[in-house]
Specification:
The structure is a homodimer.
Chain A lengths: L7 H11 L2 H7 L7 H19 L3 H7 L2 E3 L2 E3 L4 H10 L18 H14 L1 H20 L2 H12 L4 E5 L15 E4 L5 E11 L9 E9 L10 E6 L1 E3 L5 E4 L2 E6 L10 E14 L5 H37 L23 H33 L3 H36 L11 H10 L7 H12 L6 H17 L6 H27 L2 H33 L7 H16 L2 H9 L4 H4 L7
Parallel strand pairs in A: 3-6, 4-6
Antiparallel strand pairs in A: 1-2, 4-5, 5-11, 6-7, 7-11, 8-9, 10-11
Helix pairs in contact in A: 1-3, 1-10, 3-6, 6-7, 6-9, 6-10, 7-8, 7-9, 9-10, 9-11, 9-12, 10-11, 10-16, 10-17, 11-12, 11-13, 11-14, 11-16, 13-16, 14-15, 15-16, 15-18, 16-17, 16-18
Chain lengths: 594, 594
């Protein structure tokens, strides 16, 4: 069976030990985020997610969301779980107090979010998108819109959704056709059909705020003619209470591979009343506030599913006896040993775990960078944090979901035939995790974003800063002999990344197709190196704390770091070969010859 | 939508051009297998699979097999499809004429099998297991058993299934508990419960022959006390007609991630009448005749699903317009270009295809080796063929299913969000393909088989012969300048494999845990090199046929070979690092610390 205990111990390590959050939170003006409060929130959040949310995961997949006469019913138990989530104040952790939020650090909210996404990924999408919509509305909405909508979205009383995709236009938003026509009263009539709208209709709340991308009548073609609108499911009366329904209809929901408790809706907007958010024709920029937030959350889904998969596979591998240990010294003396004695079973488990712990650290670092970019007292530090965030967001979105899916499959494999049987819960993790590689921009698009947009930005400043960050760590570790088994491989990988970056920059200048030809391997190279950086930093902390460590926690961190450096990081060697194979290997075949 | 046209052109290339089957078939005494007959069978087989079997695939997944009052109903359409399969004589292609078979080469049957498995993997399991059961019964059954059962299994009038797994015993058959008690009439009373019995009960035929592993009363413990029994669902009267039901009951079927049209049964044998096959306590050896056959077929499932996934993704990538080509010269002048212009989309498609064509060649080669091991006039050649078959079987089973699953996922990714929606058919391919990595021995077990059993066998003769085969090709190609872009990387990969083999042999002698610690990476290294060998040989043929090639077929083969050498084979570089990371990286963590 799938089992889950929130990895609170590791979260505390990442926050307190690895990133010294106590100091950092204070530096960023989060005065209330004392160590005690942080720990209490993690402990309570863990209990809440394990006991209230996780039990809804399997039944929710079996029952799925149902479309009945234009309404969507979420699986049994989702309404109660959602109510408990909002009543516990879990929705509002990191939101601005001005909007009714608790004003806590994003890094702390990121940890809670991991627990929530582990407990039920399909369920977590409803509040997850709501928080992203709050970010966009907070940043770009008029005072009136913020006042009318934000507090009730921050609390979770209403949900928020993002509405971009249309049948003929997914990645390429320039093709978007939904129209918005100005009315005399300053509102807009929104007309069009959107597909793949996660949570577009449901029964968890009385109202849902749709952030819809549409074209104004006089809009220029392409992405420069897209505006963003608030289109509520139900209109507000002047006193702010809920009034009539708006022209917002759910035509159907999709039958999907996974996240079946999440309603993926076809939405029709039929002269729906919309309110412009931000400037006309600048809707894509507004939506990016939401998307950058969601991209980290979607990246985290890979980790969240892989964490449950790992824990479940460990429980099975400890209990299932089958075959004898290869090394006689490890045998139990019974007819068969628990399969956790087998090196190849351990390879699968350790691969999942070493990636999970690195991903967790990287996500928390990213959350700290997002907060630093906004709140750090030093402008130079704000700029640096913004640069690293921009660089790491596509890397996290794509790589964490890629390895996360692979990790779920490795952990399913540990179960043998039982992994393939629905009642054991492992195959649901695989099916659920698969979507994270696709939505919020397919992973190949993020690779293109990295190479095509982020690398050239500010004359290469983003990658330069990233490499400087790695170099600084390697330099300060150079004389630390105990750390060298971690810092030396990191330095080598950083060197490969530097060389590959030079190769990519030259190749892209020569042939535009090289951007797409090398992008996927290049992203993976950046990601493997980022994970190595997280492990080397973790190892440094662990070495410092090793003495007096009775729990074995820090010793095990070093074991995992070692595993990562020796068994996973070496993949960077072949990536430098394949990414430099050149575009011709991909472009030579005629389209007709495929 | 998932689409499928049998890759007959490529099969003809592999048979006629690559392996010179005309000459080889004659050499092995397959006098009837003339080129014309071979082509006619491929052409007719393609039509049959595309038109009769493939249409049952999606509905079969939606409806699934159903368990009702101890009986299993296959999805609508399966009965008619099965009847057409048997009436067309497709079941009997490669069976011995003495058993009612057509006596055609296994390599030809292997090609038909690919088409059948592409068209409906869940359906293909019923006849596929039957053919495996025929192989075992042909090799080990008494004259009476062969006479009573084989002709009606060969024709498909009855099916055959293999019954190994029990709730507490999958990989580790030594733990098996099903008992067989001798009766006075020379039969046995079989008692026990088996799980995961594919096709254990169904409505396609009136009778099913269960090959059941069980223990005799006086059997020694462990795998040396296992015997094999024929346990028919219905007993035969003296005149050979169907008589009473036997004590064979289907208690339930599993709800699975995929292959939902295939009934995966819990079977109870309650004093069922069984007939001993072969010698007492030698049942595992008998079952291996079937398992070695099935392992190649299961390996082929990875290719078969990946082929459909590839074709479907190509069709989508040609039609779906989204975004502009990176290189302005490739743009269509419309608002968006078909996504097949994007290098990263091509990376995904070409990865699937380059692996598919190599896997197809490798499977046909394996089938030729199986036939050669049995029928080649030269004893030395029989031995060599048996050695290579033994070495390649685990490699094919594990690697073709691994890459096949990955390829299905890559091709699903090409569809973006639509790939995740059931009606497009891509997610079914992923769900179906996943089982092939698990059943018929989980892939990690095959890696252990390769390193722990096949490498040391006959003092390393198997791998030596394999490397000699690669060396011979590289040596004879050394002076061929046009071939060097393929033969040089192959030679380098073979060199890495030779070094890795030496490392593995030394490591395993030092520490038994190294067997399992390096096995997975080692298997992958062997597999990538085998694929490179198939591509280098294909390139050699293509170069020779390039002149006068109006279709572009041979030019495209060279493009694919180039892609493989530059983009996929380099992965061997990092594998040599990771496999030599040593067992300590896996064994250091205490079981409690996971």
């Amino acid at each position: 069976m799938a089992v889950y205990k929130a990895p609170v111990r590791d979260m505390k390590f990442v926050l307190h030990d690895l990133f010294e959050s106590d100091r950092r939170f204070a530096e960023l003006g989060y005065d209330e985020a004392t160590p005690d409060l942080v720990d209490a929130i993690l402990d309570e959040g863990a209990k809440f997610c394990e006991n209230v949310i996780f039990p809804t995961n399997r039944p929710g997949d079996r029952q799925g969301a149902r479309h009945e006469h234009g309404r969507v019913r979420t699986p049994d138990g989702f309404r109660e779980a959602y109510q408990a989530l909002t009543e516990g104040g879990w929705m509002a952790l990191a939101a601005d107090p001005a909007d009714g939020g608790q004003g806590l650090p994003g890094a702390l909210a990121m940890c809670f979010e991991e627990m929530l996404q582990s407990s039920n990924m399909a369920f977590a999408l409803y509040p997850g998108l709501t928080r992203g919509a709050c970010v966009a509305l907070h940043a770009h909405g008029s005072e009136r819109l913020r006042r009318d909508y934000l507090p009730r979205m921050v609390s979770g009383e209403w949900t928020g959704v993002m509405c971009l995709t249309e049948p003929h236009c997914g990645t390429d938003l320039g093709l978007l056709r939904t129209r918005a026509e100005a009315r005399d009263d300053g509102t807009y009539a929104v007309r069009g059909t959107k597909i793949f709208i996660t949570g577009g209709e449901h029964d968890l709340t009385e109202n849902t705020v749709h952030l819809v991308l549409a074209r104004l009548a006089d809009a220029p073609p392409g992405v420069k003619g897209i505006s963003m609108f608030v289109v509520p499911k139900r209109l507000l009366r002047d006193d702010g209470s809920l009034g009539d329904g708006n022209g917002v209809q759910c035509a159907s929901i999709e039958h999907k591979m996974g996240i079946r408790g999440s309603a993926t809706c076809v939405m029709n907007y039929e002269d729906a009343v919309g309110y412009l958010v931000g400037e006309p024709n600048r809707g894509l920029a507004c939506m990016f506030s939401m998307m950058n937030h969601e991209r980290l959350l979607v990246g985290q889904q890979g980790l969240a599913q892989a964490e449950v998969a790992y824990q479940s596979a460990v429980a099975y591998a400890r209990e299932r006896v089958q075959g004898r240990a290869l090394n006689p010294a490890r045998r139990t003396g019974k007819a068969a040993d628990p399969i956790i004695v087998h090196p190849d079973v351990r390879r699968m488990l350790l691969t999942a775990r070493a990636n999970n712990e690195a991903a967790r650290a990287l996500l928390v670092w990213a959350a700290l960078l997002v907060d630093s970019a906004e709140r750090h007292p030093d402008a130079a530090e704000r700029e640096r944090a913004a640069d690293l965030t921009a660089l790491l967001t596509p890397v996290i979105k794509a790589h964490v979901t890629d390895y996360g899916f692979d990790a779920c499959n490795l952990c399913l494999q540990v179960f043998g035939g039982h992994g393939y049987i629905a009642e054991w819960g492992m195959e649901q993790l695989v099916r659920d995790a698969r979507i994270a590689q696709i939505y919020e921009g397919a992973n190949g698009i993020h690779a293109l974003d990295l190479v095509g947009r982020k690398l050239p930005m500010h004359d290469g400043r983003l990658m330069r800063r990233y490499l400087e960050t790695l170099d600084a760590f390697c330099d300060e570790s150079a004389s630390d002999a105990a750390l060298s088994e971690f810092s030396v491989p990191l330095k080598a990988a950083a060197g490969r990344l530097r060389d590959a970056t030079a190769w990519v920059n030259a190749a892209v200048a020569r042939d535009p197709d090289e951007t797409g030809a090398c992008s996927y391997d290049y992203l993976r190279l950046v990601a493997l190196t980022a994970f190595a950086y997280m492990w080397a930093r973790s190892a440094k902390v662990a070495l410092a704390k090793l003495e007096g460590d009775n729990s074995g926690f820090y010793r095990d961190k070093l074991t995992l770091a070692r595993f990562y450096m020796k068994r996973l990081l070496p993949h960077t060697r072949s990536l430098t070969d394949t990414l430099a194979a050149g575009a011709d290997t991909l472009m030579e075949l005629e389209a007709e010859a495929f």
